Structure formats: structure tokens, C-alpha cells
Amino acid sequence: MTKTKLFLILPLIGLLSCGKAKNEDKGTEDKAAAISVTIKGSDTVLPLAQKEAEEMMKTNSDVSVTIVGGGTGVGITALLDGTTDIAMASRDLKTEEKLKFSEAKKDIETVTIAFDALAVIVNPANKVGQLTREQLEKIYTGQIKNWKEVGGEDAKIVAYSRESSSGTYEFFKEEVLDKKNYAADILSMPATGAIVQAVSQTKGAIGYVGLAYETKEVKKLSVSYDQGKTFVAPSVASAKDKTYPISRPLFYIFDKVNAAKVKAVVDFALSPEGQKIVSEVGYVPL
């Protein structure tokens, strides 16, 4: 039996790279041969993919999985280039991306593996506990620059965002900023974990992260999408019953040519055991 290996590469800071799956050219017809699957993309999906891969390989010892973060856009580009088998994504494909896959004659399948509540976080020392969508829009487009403008102390707002290759960046822009551009002075971070760390260490900071990244070192804000009439805190329960407004699906995307190769990984993600892990990690099962 081939020894199972799991390579987990956390994309905090630095250059990331990922090669093609090792056994790609050996064929998958030989059942004794190991299947090497590469997964790349969304930092939001990353902790879920890692945990599911660990558990799956306990009973699928012929499968070797390499997981790399870096953002949804990075994963989709890698899928287009043929340097990953599965792209992790926290948004759907853009029109231009669909066109590129079509031009490359790649037939792509998108599978929803979980749902996420996008949490807005601040430093625990911040007295502000809730914001409206409109206030968040004004903070991230540069119209509101001081916490006193939203009921807080007289202190400069330090806003953190993911970089533009991130699906979370795109989703926040679409759903929270009403498609408006981020302000030029917003601080872009290379990974979700880096946002959590920065907010935990900066009193005037604000950021947004997938629910599974929320820790005791930061404070989640309640958010209103009805001009301040109702504020709802992000949680698995509020995302599941759809009362929390900033929720979204999470995806695995792959080329149908590789459907047999990635079947074990995708099937496990959709299985009762895989969906149980979704809840354990902090996301919302299907």
C-alpha cells in the first residue's frame, strides 16, 4: 500500500508555488498506483480543505493531497493553467474567467461544498459592537475615517482587506460596498490569517474574515442590512437560517477531464463525514 502524505502549505507571507500532481502521467487505471491531487486557491476554504483531506486519507491511503492557499483568483488561474486539479473558491467564476476556460476548451464543474458567514472584526478594545452596511461601505470607500463617526472613540480607523486576487475581496466589494471601489489607503493583506493578526494587534483596526478564522483575539460585529432596524451577529446558526446578511457558498472547481482523479476528494467533502467537518471547522453544512 502506498504511504499517504499530506502537505499543508499556509499562505501567510512569502512566495507560494505548487507543482503538478506527481502521478499525473502514470495514469489512474492502475488501482495500486497512488493518486496525487493538488488543491489550490481560497484562504477561506483552506482550513476546511486541510481538515477534510486529513480525515479522508485515513481511509483512502492511496490518495496524496497537496493543499495551497493564496486566494480564489490564484486557484482559478492555476486550474486554467493546469497546475492544480481543484480550485478552492469563495465566489463564483467571473464572466471573463468562464470565457477563458471556454477558449481553452476546458469543461469546468463547480461543486458547492459548504456555506460561510463573512464576519466583520475589530479589536476587542473597540467599544463599537455593530455597524450598518452603509457605514461599512463608507469606511471601506474612505468616507468615514474616525471611529467617533460611528459611535466609537476619537480614533483613526485602520481598515484591512484581502488583496484583489481573493474571492472574499470580490464578495465584500459586491455585497457590502455595493460594487464601489475600495479606498486607496485600505491595507491589503496576503492571507486571511494576517488580517486576524493585524486586527488583534491594532486598536483602531477593522477587517473581514471567513467565520472559521474568528478567534478570541478579535471581536465580531453585528451587521444591519435594513438601515439599523435589525442587527445580526455572524454565526453558524444565523448563516444557516439566513438571518445574517453576509453569507455565501464555498466551492471546489475542477476540469471534468479530471473528474475520476478528484472523485475521492469531492465525494468526501459532500459525504456526511465531510459535512460534519464543515460544522467543526466553523462553516455551515449544505
Q: Terminal Cα separation, in Å?
A: 34 Å
Average pLDDT: 90
Tell me what portion of residues adopts beta-strand conformation: 15-25%
Spans of 5+ residues with little confidence (pLDDT < 50)?
1-33
How many DSSP E strands? 12
> Count the helices. How many?
9
Task: Report the structural category.
Answer: alpha/beta
Q: What value does the Rg take, in angstroms?
A: 20 Å
Specify the biggest β-sheet.
10 strands, mixed
Which word captures the global form? globular
User: Which bin fits the share of residues in helices?
Assistant: 25-40%
Element pattern in H and E: EEHEHEHEEHEHEHEEEHEHH
Oligomer: single chain
Written account of the structure:
It is a single chain. The chain is α/β, with parallel strands linked by helices and 286 residues long. Helix content is 30%, strand content 23%. The strands form two sheets. Strands 1, 2, 3, 4, 5, 7, 8, 9, 10 and 12 form a ten-stranded mixed beta sheet that branches. Helix 1 packs across helix 8 (259-270) and helix 1 (46-59) packs antiparallel against helix 9. It is globular and about 60 Å long. Mean pLDDT is 90; it is low at 1-33.
